[in-house]
């Protein structure tokens, strides 16, 4: 059986024309609109005023009926609606995160699709413009990937030879590294480091892209957070070409992505996207303090994530530490 599709505004205007002006019968109207004659008959009976079909009244009634349907459904989730409108934050507590937190608290929740429908139909105080991104599907352009041995820096292993245990995120301690650079002040930006398993992220300000400076900042993160690094995956940026010195000092493996394939360190790319929610493109990082950066990183690490089963990176780290202490 085919899915029923509501009559469109245009079809209702045509029905008014066919009945009131052209004096065409129901069977012929159904043929012209490629609709079942029962559909046309019901539409005319519902929306005839003084024996005359009114398309404007029909359109108003249809939209009002749709709104009433949403309101009826929403009444079953009244507690969640209050929770959602009080807690929604497009940067850190989006639609899916709010649903997950509400479920943990035992609140009855609608599906995310239903919630997006309520937003798009202006049934809530949260409007479509309040969402971080419009719900669109983007298709990535495919690029040819050059030979993996082309321009491989010293002591870096091509990512194609990275062990499956790292690829499958079985252990903590395997990191991805990247930079976020200011478009206004190209000498300032952020160094970001993310654990592949727990998605725990670390970041600090950088003041230039010199290789020695990047090494200093990475070492600062290692010592500040007592990181036990087993491997680091990087891209082909020249600023990372001296990492082999830290590799020898801290005894970790160094892997390099294929050229023009930054998606191969997608964990870090996603973390950078979360940071960009607070510091969008065009941000001048020379005007951003280290304290502001750390506050944003802390919020991200405490944010429930779908990919982590709606736990936060911080929760996974704390669980891991607890398990080690109680072995």
Topology:
Elements: H1 9-21, H2 26-33, H3 37-46, E1 48-49, E2 52-53, H4 55-75, H5 78-87, H6 95-104, H7 112-120, E3 157-158, H8 164-167, E4 174-181, E5 189-195, E6 201-206, H9 211-224, E7 231-234, H10 243-250, E8 253-256, H11 266-278, H12 290-301, H13 313-325
Parallel strand pairs: 3-8, 4-7, 7-8
Antiparallel strand pairs: 1-2, 4-5, 5-6
Pfam families: HTH_38 (PF13936)
Keywords: DNA recombination
Organism: Williamsoniiplasma lucivorax
Low-confidence stretches: 136-152
Tally the beta strands: 8
Give the CATH H-level superfamily of the largest domain.
Ribonuclease H-like superfamily/Ribonuclease H
Put simply, the count of helices is 13
Percent of residues in helices: 40-55%
Rg computed from alpha carbons, rounded to a whole number of angstroms: 28 Å
CATH structural class of the largest domain: Alpha Beta
The number of domains = 3
CATH topology tier name of the largest domain? Nucleotidyltransferase, domain 5
* Distance from first to last alpha carbon: 59 Å
**Largest beta-sheet characterization:** 6 strands, mixed
Report the average pLDDT across residues. Answer: 84
Described by its quaternary structure, the protein is single chain
Overall structural class, as computed from helix and strand content, comes to: alpha/beta
In N-to-C order, the SSE pattern is HHHEEHHHHEHEEEHEHEHHH
Q: In one word, what is the shape?
A: elongated
Strand proportion, as a percent range, falls in 5-15%
- Biggest sheet strand order reads 3-8-7-4-5-6
| CATH architecture identity of the largest domain | 2-Layer Sandwich
GO molecular function: nucleic acid binding; transposase activity
Keywords: DNA recombination
Protein name: Transposase
InterPro entries: Integrase_cat-core, IS30-like_HTH, RNaseH-like_sf, RNaseH_sf, Transposase-Integrase, Transposase_IS30-like
């Amino acid at each position: 059986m085919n899915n029923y599709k509501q009559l469109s505004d245009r079809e209702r205007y045509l029905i008014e024309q066919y009945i009131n002006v052209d004096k065409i019968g129901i069977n012929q109207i159904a043929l012209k609109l490629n609709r079942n004659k029962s559909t046309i008959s019901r539409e005319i009976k519902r929306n005839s005023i003084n024996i005359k079909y009114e398309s404007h009244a029909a359109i108003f009634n249809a939209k009002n009926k749709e709104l009433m349907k949403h309101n009826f459904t929403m009444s079953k989730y009244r507690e969640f609606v209050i929770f959602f409108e009080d807690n929604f934050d497009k940067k850190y507590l989006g639609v899916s995160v709010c649903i997950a937190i509400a479920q943990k608290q035992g609140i009855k929740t609608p599906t995310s699709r239903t919630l997006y429908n309520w937003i798009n139909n202006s049934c809530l105080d949260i409007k479509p413009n309040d969402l971080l991104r419009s719900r669109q599907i983007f298709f990535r352009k495919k690029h040819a990937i050059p030979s993996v041995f082309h321009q491989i820096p010293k002591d870096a292993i091509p990512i194609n030879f990275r062990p499956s245990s790292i690829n499958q995120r079985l252990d903590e301690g395997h990191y991805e590294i990247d930079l976020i650079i200011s478009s206004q002040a190209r000498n300032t930006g952020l160094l970001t480091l993310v654990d592949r398993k727990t998605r725990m992220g670390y970041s600090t300000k950088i003041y230039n892209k010199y290789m020695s400076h990047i090494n200093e900042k990475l070492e600062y993160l290692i010592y500040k957070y007592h990181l036990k690094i087993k491997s680091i995956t990087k891209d082909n940026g020249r600023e990372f070409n001296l990492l082999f010195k830290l590799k020898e000092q801290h005894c970790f493996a160094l892997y390099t992505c294929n050229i023009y394939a930054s998606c191969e360190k997608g964990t870090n790319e996603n973390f950078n996207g979360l940071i960009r929610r607070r510091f969008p493109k065009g941000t001048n990082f020379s005007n951003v303090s280290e304290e502001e950066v750390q506050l944003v990183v802390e919020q991200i690490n405490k944010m429930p994530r779908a990919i982590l089963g709606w736990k936060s990176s911080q929760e996974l780290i704390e669980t891991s530490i607890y398990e080690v202490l109680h072995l």
